[in-house]
Amino acid sequence: MVKRGMARGRSGAAGAGRMTARKVAGKAPGRAPRKAAPAEPKMLAAMNRQIVEELDSAYLYLAMAAYFEGEGLEGMAHWMKAQSIEEVIHAMKFFGHIHSRAGTVELQALAKPQKTWASPLAAFEAAYAHERHITRCIHDLVDLAAAERDHAALPLLQWFVEEQVEEEESALKVVDLLKRVGSSGHGLLLIDRQLAARAMPVSMPANGE
Ligand code: MG
Question: Domain 39-195 adopts which CATH fold?
Answer without folding.
Answer: Ferritin (1.20.1260)
